[in-house]
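User: I'm writing a tutorial on reading structure tokens. Could you give me a worked example: one chain, its sequence, then its tokens, then a sentence or two explaining what the tokens reveal?
Assistant: Sure. Here is the example chain.
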Amino acid sequence: MDFNVKKLASDAGVFFTRAVQYTEEKFGQAEKTELDAHLENLIARADCTKNWTDKIFRQTEVLLQPNPSARIEEFFYEKLDRKIPSRTTNAELLGQYMQDAAKDFGPGTPYGSTLITVGEYQKRLGGAEREFLQTSAINFLTPLRNFLEGDWKTISKERRLLENRRLDLDVCKARLKKAKSAEAKAAAEHELRVAQTEFDRQAEVTRLLLEGISSTHVNHLRCLHEFVEAQAAYYTQCHKHMQDLQKELSSANGDTFPNAFAVNASTSGVSTGPSPLSTASLPGASSPSRPPNPSNALEPSTLKIEEVKPPATGTRKAKVLYDYDAADTSELSLLADELITVYTVPGMDPDWLIGERGNQKGKVPVTYLELLS
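And here are its predicted structure tokens:
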């Protein structure tokens, strides 16, 4: 390789001179030309914008792709200007596992058919997540990256040039002060005028670039709105998928797991009984009113309590929330905090279950129970 020795020596000399000049400025032994207040404020605002944009960009990357190895891989693909390969989301992978498991367990069994249904909805959730990630990367991450890797690099380059022009100007001022002869003073004054002109020109260029930060804020504000809209659409879509799944499971498994979703899904607003956190755990909380005991809660003409047998599958454990006194021999009295086994039988009112405690058996109200499993 052919080295330019003269240029290398010149650059080394400039570097050494700059180091000496910076040191003298720090100790107050050299004159330093100060930038005007407006330009200083623009520089401080630009630095603040760059720092926070970088932090927001990095954390958004973590939010959209928590796997650091995957982020590194995507980084290399971008630098090589190659298309990033499509990845299967975790929800899609879970859905596929569920459906594969259903094939082994038997798609005709209750568990297998439910796995197929839940797996399909997990894939839908994964598809919604994939769309959200792609939209956010294009509409939010890309503009932030363009600023950090494009506009900011240009601003930084011009700021370095401005700093060099300032140092050159200060050197010329010091040289003029040290000039003794008239000829030396004339030459120093000429160099000072040239340096002052170059400094003013570079200061104006830098100022114009820094004032463009306001436009950057406007652009990032628009991108932020698009990011929020993408998030809202994604969560709305996920909520709809889960509501549809809940309804489908409730209708498909209603005979096996009665009121499973109505009692436990208090957060969805469909609970028919009091939440144990909202009432049972509070001092002085009163028990719910006794549910109606309709004549068709259990058809006495065709089925008697002593003849009721628990199903092979579908029994569940329940915790009693309040004391309950049986109204007749078909019901089972309850004590708060005890555990009983519950299940339903065809033709039973949804507000009631069959409860068993040892050899005792009878109807119990759902609103007095917290289903555990």
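What the tokens reveal: Confidence is low (pLDDT under 50) at residues 258-284, 294-302. Residues 110-178 form the longest helix (69 residues).
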